[in-house]
User: Fold this.
Amino acid sequence: MPIQRKSAFSRRLPDLVTEELVSVLSKKKSFEFKQLFDIVHENLRKRNAASGGEEMLRLRTYEKLSGLVENQMVEKTGPINAKKYRGLSTLANALKPVDAVR
Assistant:
């Protein structure tokens, strides 16, 4: 009889990029992505957590931000070439651990 192994953690904590995004977007202010990334990148550098290169971090930040928009925790507004992001009241839920799909 084969041994069953779990391939995922039972509870996942938010990563540092998500923590910084939530911290910045909680200020009830709208940010363009470049401005938002610059703040997040600087905060991660202060925490000595900005590893993997700036471009890779930019992609990860955009991916996390897109997920927050998709989950309706962040609002995306503005014209096509100047989108702004603003945190909503549900943004605090992004820092709660979630059960992983097994």
Q: What stands out?
A: The mean pLDDT is 84. The beta strands are 11-12, 31-32, 74-77, 84-87, 98-99.
